[in-house]
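We include the entry.

. . .
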Amino acid sequence: MTERTIDKRRIAESFGRAATTYDQAAAFQRTVGSNLLARLPKDYCPENTADLGCGTGYFTRELQRRYGRPVMGIDLAEGMLQFARNASPDCGPWVTADAEALPLRAGSQDLIFSSLALQWCSNLQIALSEAYNALRPGGYLAFNTLVEGSLGELRQAWERVDGFVHVNRFMPEAVLRELLARAGFSQCRCEIEQHVLHYAQLSELTRELKALGAHNVNPGRPGGLTGRARLRALTEAYEQFRGDKGLPATYQVAQIVLTKGAA
C-alpha cells in the first residue's frame, strides 16, 4: 500500500476492536504464520526476538516456546496488546509502535518475525529499513504479506455492484520483489503461496473479515452503512464463483526470509 492509501489510526482502532474475536477467526492466519516459522533455520537460536505486528500474541508465544527466551511483542493497536498482555503474562515486553518507526536500538535484534502485518504499512521500504537497522549482522527478518490477487473474488463481485473501493489494495508481486532487492539484505528468499478458503455463504466471509478487524482502509470506500439492495447485489455477483466446495476466497501470500549480512 502507498502512503496516501492508508489510515493507521483507522487500522489500529479496527484491529483493537477485534482483539476479543480475532483468535476464533484466525485459522488461516495461524496457518500462514506457521508456514513462515517453518522457513527459519532449524538450528538458529536467537537471543533477542521481536514479534512485529504481534496482535493477540499467538506467535509471540510460539516463538518463546521455540527459542526458550522472552520475545518482545510490538503492535500498532493498543487493544490487541492489552489482550496479549492478559493472555500471555510470561511473554513480553509489549510495545505499542509503528513498523515504520521502530523503538529498537540499532543492532539489538537477532530475529524480527512478522506475520500478516506489514501489508498495512504506508511505505514498506521504510519498514524494511527500520528492521534492517534493528537487526544484528547475521540476523533475520522473517515476514509474510498479502500481495495483489488476494480477495480477488470479492473485489470482482463489488465491481459489478458499484464503483466504490470495498476491498483493500495489495502490492503487486513484482513491486514487492523490487523493494526486497533494494532493501540491503545479503540474502532474500521470497515464495508465493496461494490459499483458497471456501464458505457456504458470503456472509460467513464478511463476518470473518469483521472478526479479524481486516476492514477496508482505502480511499474511495463508501461512507455509512451498506444498503440492503447493494448487499443483495453483491451476494448475487459473488455466486458466479461458487464451486463444488462452496464460495472461494483466494489469498496470495508472499513468504519472505531476509538475512542481514555479517559486518
